Amino acid sequence: MRETLDRLIDDFHERSLPPLLPRDADLPRLPGKASVVIGMRRAGKTWFCYQEMQRLLGQGIEKERLLYVNFEDERLLPFSTQDFQLLLDTYFGKYPALREEGAFLFLDEVQRIDGWDLFVRRVLDSEKLDVVVTGSSSRLLGTEIATAMRGRSLTREIFPFSWAEFLRLSGVDPEPRTFSSRARSQNEKLIGIYLERGGFPEIQDLSADLRRQVLRGYVDVVILRDIVERHGVSSITALRALIRHVMSAPATRFSINKFYKSLRSQGIPATKNDLYEFLEHLVDAYLVFTVPLHSRSEHVRRVNPRKAYVIDTGLLDAMSLCMTRDRGARLENLVFMHLRRGGHQVEYYLTKSGAEVDFVVLPERRGARRLIQVSWDMSNPETRKREMTALREAMRELRIRTGTIVTWLDEDLSDDRVRVVPAWRWFLED
Fold first, then answer.
1. pLDDT tens track of the chain, all 430 residues?
2. What residue numbers bound the domain in which 40 lies?
3. Residue 356 lies in a domain
4. Would you say 293 and 304 are in contact if contact means Cβ atoms under 8 Å apart?
């Protein structure tokens, strides 16, 4: 193992860092705390670490002071808890002065190694190391970090490219001073590409067929590595059926009971508890997100189904051989992910008459709640009336003065209480 570690350290220091598109995020840093970067596989966590490395190099930090280890490198297998110390011994054996000067340690996909948290906590106390860890699991944010790191970490979530990042990738300024006719046309064209292609960095320049193949591969890796291997799932057929169901009906209320009955009718074995756990695993792996009903009653929130969303609309396109082409649902999924990237807590709302409003954005501290409805096309008078009625009912019942309807291309700013705005513009302004 020592020879392997020695070679990996030399390889990293000899090769150049790749060119990259800077992400709209920074790495939280505080002395004595580890920086934790989490998100779905292939969302850009490693390249975000490269971005931080480039920032350090730009400050005059020598590359030898950076140590990067990817624990998905097969050359490290088998890697045990004891090998963490061997890694440090090998590194400081090559650069002994850095034990006193200090170094920057990047541990990529470290959740694969048992005992990683004990090692990180120890080196934070005993070594002059600035530690960054990445992982493809929300549990790094929740249970594992809270119990293992004991307040010794700061977290940054990384998602596929946002709309603003996608524009920069396309050579378009995401912060124009005005929206000219040319800028509007350009944005309207590009958001159609963004909705279909999605924001995963690796697939941006691929052909449509190859892109879909790669994205389907992402889902397979999540299933096999982040769920089956990590949690010991044996009912893979039921798990895949659950994923297909969510992908086929994004932005809709999902009932475990109804889905359980559907599986039974197909002869697919699974218990309700299995399905609840599977959904939890999908959320843990950042593939799926769920949104509860907005209510003051915890009982009402618990007994009503949650709405399910997928991390990227490109996955919806890749998985939809015979599935949904519901453009409104895809647009709603896109709006949800914009809110999720911003760290907003959202819920959906049912009015007393049973009308649904897609998002209640909960306030931070003393802020006010916001209501957001999503509609693909408002040109049909019946559609406009339905969406407006639902939103205004919610505004009255929740005592919220204004609301927003996010559309594909429609815009209407004539009402000072209900604003109708196209998604491409709302993403940039929100």
1. 889 999 999 999 999 999 899 999 999 888 889 998 989 999 999 999 999 999 999 999 999 999 999 998 999 988 998 899 999 999 999 999 999 999 999 999 888 888 888 899 999 999 999 999 998 766 554 455 545 666 788 889 999 999 999 999 999 988 876 788 888 999 999 999 999 999 999 999 999 999 999 999 999 999 998 899 888 898 999 999 999 999 999 999 999 999 999 999 999 999 999 999 999 999 989 999 999 999 999 999 999 999 999 999 999 989 875 444 689 999 999 999 999 999 999 999 999 999 999 999 998 777 789 999 999 999 999 999 999 999 999 999 999 999 999 999 999 988 889 999 999 999 999 8
2. 2-158
3. no
4. yes
CB-CB neighbours of 256 under 10 Å = 17
Task: Assess whether 21 and 113 both reside in one domain.
Answer: yes
Measure Cα distances from 100 to 6, 58, 88, 196, 231 in Å.
20, 22, 13, 51, 41
Domain boundary among 292, 325, 358: 325
CB 75 within 8 A of CB 4: yes
Residue 253 resides in a domain: yes
pTM for the model:
0.92
Quote the number of domains for the chain: 2
